[in-house]
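User: I'm preparing a small set of examples for a lab meeting where we compare how different chains pack in three dimensions. I only have the primary sequence for this one, and I'd like the structure in token form so I can line it up with the others. Please keep the answer compact; I'll paste it straight into my notes.
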Amino acid sequence: MIASLRGVAAMLAADHAIIEVQGVGYLVQASTRTLGQLTAQEPAFLYIDTQVREDAITLFGFAAMTERDWFRHLTSVQGVGGKVALAILSTLSGDELAQAIATQDKAMVARANGVGPRLATRIVTELKGKVAALPVSGVTAPAATSSAARDAVSALEHLGFRPMEAAKAVAEAEAELGSAAGVNEVIRVALRKAGRS
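Assistant: Understood. Below is the structure token output for the 197-residue chain.
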């Protein structure tokens, strides 16, 4: 199984690249995010996810290992094939995807080509329990808008909440109470929203 390719980006297209390695050209499907980091006729390195089917062997390439990990999580959802997963990763960064899953924002996921409301719902639902294990880079979802909310997020993290879980509970509390609420009230409602009161 091919895990990575190092060679030259012999050709770039809208949804794939040909990576030439010692005279052999590998056709690699990729997101626009990854393709945007490649330059034709320049050295290239891609992490690869190899999918073997009865009628084809398909290589999916990623400039970053975190994007490859997101791809694998997305394709674990029923109804999400490689091309749909790439469409999602072309539309949303890993941090945006983590935020959409944490906040169950189906509309954000449905912005990707080929993702309807039903599939978007399945994606955010099936990946919700796995969001803590998914690769993100310091995402807080969504950002706290007041100093009381920021203090409440910090307090919940000290109580053992994961950062994304704390941010989500505080955002829900702030939406209910308004941004003028005090930190103690926000914490109380956030704990109730998270089912820990």
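A couple of notes for your slides: The chain has a mean pLDDT of 83. The longest helix spans residues 163-177.

User: Perfect, thanks.
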